[in-house]
Specification:
By secondary structure, the chain is mainly α. The chain contains ten helices and two strands, in the order ααααββαααααα. Helix content is about 75%, strand content about 5%.
Length: about 300
Amino acid sequence: MGSLGNLASSGTLTQILVGLSRTTILFIVSSGLTLILGVLRIPNIAHGSLYMIGAFVACTVIQTLGGGMPAFWAALTVAPLAVAALGFVLERGFFSYLYDREHLMLLLLTFSFALILGDLVKIVWGAEYRSVTVPAFFQGSAELFGLPLPYYNLFLLLVGPVIAVFLWLVINRTRMGKIALAAAVDSEMVSAVGINVGWVFAFTFVLGCALAGLGGALIAPMVNISLGMDHSLIMEAFLIVIMGGLGNIWGALLGSLIFGLTQSLGILAWPQFGIVFPYLAVVVVLLFRPKGLLRSTW
């Protein structure tokens, strides 16, 4: 009986660790979405497409350079930069002219871009599945709490807190970050004191897009990279942002933890319906906290 209990507890702990590693991807993508939603008030449906492009760019870089750790680090650098550059073009070329319009118009525009970017991916990379292998450095497993955990999952567990601290420093310790926080509360007042709010919005949008690209690059060695990989991700990201509190980075982290862990434990407890558990968690949270777990910027 004791061995069965140990087996169950070890399986639960392993599933928790795997869920935490997936939480990193959810947090990185959701944090970019919540920045854009909190400061620019844009419900960016195309955010998932940017994540998908990040995965395809990372795949291309790794395959072009022949794999290995140098190619992997290059992919983690090039993919966010490429997606950030695309985000800059979208923001300066389109969104910057529409900030004073209704949210519905912005929503429709982002939906249009989601369709356009999906077709762009199909034109550039084709419709077939692509995949990249985990670098040899990350192959194998480490023991954590006496349980095996793949090195790459362990790497993701370390990346999450690093990104969270980086975002906190950018938002709370840089001039641009502080201005973005003020613009999220009252952009007209920020503009009245002589600050070019347009460039603050551009900075925020580009940073959010870079995070989407980074999430795509990090997920590339773990999944089949294909058209449509953005669909489920963008829905999960929006739910996490709403659950955590619109525009709140720490809310995105907390929401990602809840979403990732309930999904992992749900699969362990009831595999056939494991995907339902995180959505139930969202419903429960919003029943008791309609505005999200932490303070919303809206």
